[in-house]
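Lecture 7 notes. Example A: sequence first, then its structure tokens.
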Amino acid sequence: MKALVYTQPNRMEIQERPYPQLVAGEVIVKIEAAGVCGSDMHAYHGRDPRRKPGLVMGHELAGTVVESADARIDAGARVTANPLITCGRCDHCLQGRGNLCTDRSMVGMTRPGAFAEFMSIPSSSLVEIPQGLAPAKAAVTEPAATALHAINLSMRALFRPVPECKTLVIGGGAIGMLSALLLRSYGCGDITLAETNALRRESARLNLACKVCDPTVDAPADSAFDYVIDAVGAAPTRNMAIASAKPGSVVMHIGLQSNSSEIDMRKLTLGELTLLGCYTYSTIDMRAAIRAMHHGAFGTLDWIETRGLSQGAQAFDDLDKGRAASAKLILQPGG
């Protein structure tokens, strides 16, 4: 089968790889769409020691089951999947917080992923795709679940309901776009999105119907927002998030572009800010996200861009060079 392989930093190649082996409790999925995640780009740049050269990446997927070693799953089922494979036994798993499982592995990281024609995955990871939802849109379920998980966590800490919050979303990538769209569906009417890439700013203007700014030219005002989402996670965006937050507000940190930075702990303390971290989602979040997507909570998703898997190397290069206007590139085998 054909697969897009990470061969060395800043290099992806189409290669022939063996068809996956079917083992007990797993299924083989024919991949119809697979999204490029920011974490895939992080690995592409050689900055993720967990993703080693020779790996087939890709963990945002949609496809059809073609073989099943689980009597409960039939061939022909249309599915997306939770790429986090958890132990199911630890306290976190038993609490329904499998994203925090300390014995987890992951599709596209510790085992071959979805940038291929076929992929194997445990049947317990599968999430059914609603009838009528196109594969390219269903592949956005994974980042949509991240946005949903983050906003649901935030709502437990916010002192006022989301519709009353003046909100700043930092980053116009998929997580930022999806967060803004979901907030809009929850009734939040005052949203500003900050994005440095001009192509993505224009896409946000066309698809989000919210205020859009270039923070390098028109920085968000200090202490002006009730709720801030950092969907980038770099030192400058962390500083922007803390600076722009009102006293008593909530800052949700989703992105992790860089690992460490100094933040204004004095403001965090004196302003009684709530700073939250968020890692991925649970399978329940994924099911909720795909239902919300099917019912229009994330809009039409017309801003996503599809390319053939054979164009995958160019897609990574375009994302790296800032030439892609879309916040989400989807690769489709056969193209």
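Example B, a different protein, same format:
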Amino acid sequence: MKKLSARRRHPLAALVVLLFALAVTGGLYAAFAPADKAQADDTAQSLAIKEGKKLYAVGCASCHGTGGQGSSDGPSLVGVGAAAVDFQVGTGRMPAQQPGAQVPRKTPIYNQAQIDQLAAYVASLGAGPAVPGKDQYSPDGADVGKGGELFRTNCAQCHNFTGKGGALTDGKFAPTLEGVDPKHIYEAMQTGPQNMPSFGDGTLSSENKKDIVAYLDAVNGDDTASPGGLDLGGLGPVSEGLFGYIFGLGALVAVAIWVAARTTKAKKS
């Protein structure tokens, strides 16, 4: 008894009891507390990467390499980011049906959940642009006028003034932007697919990109009608001026000939 009392009075006894109590409390909490949200998110992300790797091995590895390193049939995917995958696969451009000057848009063969898994796997290969959130590409609250100015400065030379598309060199083309999902338009500016240059946030800020999306929605929306009547394909002032020159001047020449013929006939009579 005297020995036990002496141990209780030891200067470190209180510290030992405190550490023991903390260890027991922590163990009980770890055993019975709900899983941490961050840990759950990490688990979900790991599962998405795992499933995406399986999809990649079946549909992408033959061209882009087993580790995304690229090959003679396809570029490297290291560092392209999730946004590039979401755009290319979400628009049906990838997997490509056949090689060519440019891969056209087609019906996607993967659903959105599978696209997200592929994007997660490719993003794990190297850091790159992430898939934008709805608040980034939604046209709500954006400046349509500023978007039109930015589009005419940076995009119209290929896609024409209202995004109807146009021909490029060597069989390539700038696709129409009519009916394209706003998210995919934003991602295209982020990643620069195929012949298009990329417009990072240092070139076009996220607000600038949103303004451009709003402009395209305004000129190509379902309820949009040309305020000037026939829009002539929306190709801009050159085509409209040429139309006016050929048909307007041609109509004037025809009227002049008709008036001259009527005048000559009247004099003969």
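Note on Example B: The longest helix spans residues 237-268. Strands lie at 166-167, 173-174.
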